[in-house]
Amino acid sequence: MELVCTNYKFYAEYIKLLDQDYEFRKEKSLTELEKKLKHTKFRNYYLNEKGFNYESILKIHKIMRSGMLRPQRLIIDSDTFYIACDMLTNTYYICYKEIMMIDIDFYKDSEGKSQEIQLSEAVKLFEQDNLDSGRSWILYRSKGGIHAFLSSECMEYHTKESCDLMIKLKCDFNYIIYSYLRGWCVRLNRKKTETKLEYTLIKEIGVCDKENKKMIDMHIKLVDIFKDEYPSNMYGV
User: How much is the pTM?
Assistant: First the structure.
C-alpha cells in the first residue's frame, strides 16, 4: 500500500511513516523481544540494561512508531514545518524539520533535587555546550522543565548526530525517539491540568541565526492563537 502524498510538503514525511509502518507490520512477525518492547515497563528495563544510546533508538523506534501514528488534522504545511492537531488527544502542535528542540522534564529522574537546582544545572549544561561547541541556544521554561531550541544552525532530525546531541544534553529519551521519527514537535494548547499554557523565556545563549530565531519565535505566537482551543488530553505534567 502506498499513500499518495504529492501535494504535501514537510507533512509528507509523516504520511510516509504510515506506509513504513504498514509494510513493517505486513512483512514480518514481531519477535518476542519486539513484542515485549511494546510495553513501557519492559522498554525501561531494556534501556537500563542496554543504555540510553543511538543503538537503542534503532532497536526501539519502529515499535514506538506504531503508537505515534494517529489521525491528524493538518492546518498549515510548509517545507520546513507543519502545524496540526492530533485528533486522538486534541493536541495542537508545530513540528519543525530543522529546528532542534531539547525537552528536559524535571519531574523525571530528579534524584530528589528541587526544580530550582535542576533549572540551574540545565542552564549551565547549555552554557557549557556553547563554550565547547559554539552552538547557540534559546531556553524556555515549561511547566515540567525546559525547552531548549538550537538557534545557531539547522539540524536534520533523522540522524545519529541529532540523537547523540540530544542524549548528551539530557533530553527526555522518548522525545528523542519521536523526534528521530518525525521532527521536533512543540505543543501549542494547554492540557486539562493547566489553566494556561506558558513558555517563559529563560535566556538566550550565544548568537542566534536570524531566520532560526523567527522560526522559534513562531511557536510563542501560536500559543496565543490556540489559547482558547479545547485542552489537550495528552498524558504528563
Answer: 0.92
